[in-house]
Each structure stands twice: as C-alpha cells, then as structure tokens.
Write a sequence for this structure.
C-alpha cells in the first residue's frame, strides 16, 4: 500500500484522537500510540482496523518503547510521512501545589518524551521528506503565574525551532501547534468558549496539506472568547 502514514502520540483522546480521525479521513494510514491501549484499540477499529490503523502501547518517556513504536510502524506500513509529538499533560498552578513526583512525570512526558519522539522518528521522516509536528501551547509563548506546565511548553517551543534548524534542507517540514484553551481531558470541567479537539485537528491537517515548498512553522490558535 502506498497511502501515507501518520503517527500520533497521545492518540487515545482529545487532540490526538481527533487528529487521528481527521488524518484517516484524508486518506492516511494512522499509527496510534498512547499508554491507554483499550481506548486505542477501539479507535483503531473505528478507523478501519489493522490495514488502516495500528494501535501501539507506548510510554513516551521510555526510549525502548519509542524505538519499538517506530520500528513496528515501518515494518507494518513501510514508511512514515508525518509524526505528531502530541503526548503531554498539565498540572495545577502554584509551586506549592502538586507533588514533586507528579512534576517529574509531567516534565518527563512533556519535554523528554517529545525529544524522544523527535529522535525516534527523524530518520524515517528524512527518508520520506515528511512532516514533524509538536503540540505546544499558548502557555509556551507567555509566562503563566506559578505554572511549571508553562515552562515545559516553552521547552517544546524551543525544540520546534531547534528541530526546524536541524532539518533545514532535508525536505522535512516542522510545525509547532500552539492551542489556547481546548475542551479536552486536560481540564476537569468543560468550559464555554473553548476550542474543540476537532478545531486543532483541522489546524494540523491544514499544515500538513500545504505543498512541499511551504513550511508553516507555528500556528497559534485561540478561541474567539479567550482574552489572554
């Protein structure tokens, strides 16, 4: 099969799942990676089963699992055209909130995990002259009071530019997606005026659908009602 292949970490819910549906609808075969295998299996079945969607358990903070994720994707589908480093989660604001153990897990997932996804996919993306996408945040563009999460997303912003510079002249495009408030499991309570995961999925697909000579490096998306 020659259809392009789209890999997504953090694919079991929210932006990742919405992007998987959008990519499948656009004709991509999708590789779905997350720690929640049950939800991944259901999503893979929805998107066409093993011929069109591959569900893989992956803790993005584990290098061996990241390597295995890419190796299995290449063995099954033969190529990798798009990699979306989307896995991540947040924390309560305030440097006296959350536990140090929770902080450690968040920093490892949001920063180290993204770096490992870049490292694991970069060779295959070069071969395909493909596209690397990272989920950043509005919080990665401005300081947020008491937010270590914001600091992790500043790191992702820097990684996006670092990857772009490294991949310059390889044919690989790099896009940093920076959502404002999105109605996802990140928030305990749904909020009026927030973006929907499908809004971010459309943004991702807009970036990857550009002709090869167009590299959209950053897309900041706020809900219309968000003032900051």
């Amino acid at each position: 099969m020659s259809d392009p292949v789209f890999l997504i970490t953090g694919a079991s819910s929210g932006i990742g799942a919405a992007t998987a549906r959008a990519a499948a609808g656009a004709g991509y075969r999708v590789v779905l990676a997350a720690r929640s295998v049950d939800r991944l299996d259901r999503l893979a079945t929805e998107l066409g089963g093993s011929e069109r969607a591959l569900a893989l358990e992956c803790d993005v903070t584990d290098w061996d699992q990241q390597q295995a994720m890419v190796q299995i994707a290449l063995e099954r589908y033969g190529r990798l055209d798009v990699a979306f480093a989307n896995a991540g989660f947040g924390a309560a604001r305030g440097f006296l909130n959350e536990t140090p153990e929770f902080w450690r897990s968040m920093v490892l997932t949001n920063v180290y995990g993204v770096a490992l996804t870049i490292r694991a996919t970069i060779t295959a993306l070069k071969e395909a002259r493909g596209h690397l996408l990272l989920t950043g945040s509005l919080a990665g563009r401005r300081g947020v009071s008491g937010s270590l999460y914001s600091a992790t997303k500043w790191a992702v912003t820097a990684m996006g530019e670092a990857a772009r510079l490294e991949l310059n002249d390889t044919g690989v495009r790099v896009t940093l997606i920076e959502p404002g408030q999105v109605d996802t499991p990140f928030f305990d309570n749904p909020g009026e005026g927030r973006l929907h995961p499908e809004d971010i999925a459309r943004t991702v697909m807009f970036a990857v659908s550009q002709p090869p000579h167009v590299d959209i490096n950053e897309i900041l998306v706020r809900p219309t009602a968000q003032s900051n």
